[in-house]
Structures are given as structure tokens and as C-alpha cells.
Amino acid sequence: MNPSAFLSTLGGKKVLLLTHAGADVDSFCSAAALYFAFRFHADLTIGVPEHINLSAKALARNLGIPFILSPENLDEFDRAIAVDFNSFDMLGGMAPALKAFKKPILVIDHHSDGRERISVKALRVIDPACVSTCELVYRLLSRKHKHLNAEVAVLLAAGIIVDSAGFTVASPETFTIMSRVLEKSGKTLPEIVSLFKVKADVSEKIAVLKAARRARIYKSDERILVSTDVGAFEASAASSMIRLGADVAFAGGESKGHLMVSGRANNHLVVKTGFDLDQHVFKGIAQEFGGYGGGHPAAAGYNLSVAGNLSVAGSPDGKTIEKVLERCIQLTHAYFKEKSRGLGSQLIEYP
Ligand SMILES: [Mn+2]
């Protein structure tokens, strides 16, 4: 079976559309686009492991798209489609359930191909050159005209806008696809953006400002690295540090046995140096502390929880975050040091 045959034989089947843990807009929209393309032919369920991010949640609410958090009983499904991830570690606590699922799985993803294989080669549509998974979903759906209705087009456009960071990392194909889906959607670009816009509330603004106050500032050659401790809104805090002038920023927090770190890097730096938060920092962090990391060169995240954590380093204990953030900075510095063949200067922390 190939991907086209997989999709054209969905009729009458019970199908799970599965995002990665903590689904973002690209992942959720990929699943939702498939939902709106096939919902009159098949019995479809959108499953989101563990939690959904605020933007994706807003979009689901605005468009009335049903989804289930951490679905149980995968046995009842005949097939699964995994979107925006290709390794079990991006499923968090749902990894064992999908590992036990022995029926056909179609994987559609734009992350680099992981070590683990969650499906057979013929059913893995993986292209890391793609800016968003929604573009890959477009490629598959555009083969049959009837699948590309206005609802599908709106969702694909939203996923592309978010994962291209507002078209700052777009490829020529991104614009070709965007042009087609925008036309088909019958909406304007601002209307689509408003579907997933989350207004920063007071607590988020305070968290970000506190993150700035607590920032530890380092210099690695001419680059500014920043780490900071936050109670919530890690991603927002890390992005804010980049806007304030950091080249690489990590914002992390720890509560109730769960630790998470968001990393952000300046896009120009990533393009110029090949630095990749996921590959050069969070992979190493996951090896040292357990847990799982994932994402993209300029935007990635790391999670460590007590449940399902088999790390040697142990579970978070309220002090782990300090060590993890320090290692993030050290690994970032180590990458640039190696790039300069050891000629780079020492890592300096500003008092
Ligand atoms: Mn994505």
C-alpha cells in the first residue's frame, strides 16, 4: 500500500488522526484538514496526546473542531494517520499505546527522520525540506480536487502561516501552496490569522517581564545567549528574549514533577551557522536527563516528567531546571566553539 492507496481506501473505516504531544497549529491543522477532507467517508477522530497549545486550542474552538485529549483504546481504530511527528518520543505518555498499535499507520511529517520507525517505509511521507506538515498534506490532498474544500484550505493556510513564522522561513513552494489555499479558503489573510490569535493576558505579560528580570546573560564570541526561569509561558518568554536581542534563548520552568524548556534562536544565525536547537542542544539534554525534545532548528522544546521518565539523572526535584538550563547554554556554546575549530573565546556570564 502507498499513501494514495491508503487515503483512497479510508471509506467506512474507523481512523485516528494523531498529532504530536502538545499539538501546535501545524500539527492540529494537518489532522483537522484530513478530518474535513474525509469526514463524510470515514469515521474520524482527532487525537491530541497530553495537551494542546493555546493557539491550536483557540483555532479548534473558533472553528468548532472536535478532538480528544490522549485517546485510549486504540484497538477500536482500523488505521491511524500520524501528523507532524515521526518518532514515538514526540507522543509523550501515548508512545506505548501507538507502539502496540499493529494496524496500518500513515506518517506525514516535515521533521528530520528519527531513529525509530513508527510505520513501514512505503507509508512514511517525510520531507524535512518542507516548511510545514500542512504543505505535505496539501500535496496529498491536491491530487483529488474534491478533497480541497474551503474548510480544508483555511486549515492548511493557518498551519503554513504558523510554521513558516509568518513566511520568514518560507520556500518557493510555500508561496505556491499558500496562494492556492488562500484563494480556495474564501478568507483574507488577517481573517485566518485571527482564528489562532491568542491575546496575551496579564499573567502572560507578567511572566514574560519576570523572565526578562531573571535572565542570565552569556557571551559566546559575538553571540548573546540567554537563559531564564519562568513559571509558565516558556515559549512566549524565549521568543521575547530573542526580540530583546538574544541570539539564542532558553526559558524553562518546573512544577509538580514536570519540567519544560523552550528554546528559540535567531533565524539568521540558524541559516548562517547551521545551528539547530533540536539536534545540537535538546538531543543531548534528553540523553543526559531523560525526557524528550523535539522541534526545529530555531524553535524547539524539551519535556521531562515524573510519569514515564526512565532517566538515569532522575525526575525533576525543583532544582533540576537550573542544571538543565546551564547545560543548554553550555551545549550551545560548545557547538559554536567546535564550529570555530576551538578558536572561539570562552563562555562569559555577565554579572
Ligand atoms: Mn510542524
From TrEMBL:
Transmembrane segments: none
Cross-referenced Gene3D superfamilies: inorganic pyrophosphatase (n-terminal core)
Residues in DDH domain copies: 14-160
Record protein name field: DHH family phosphoesterase
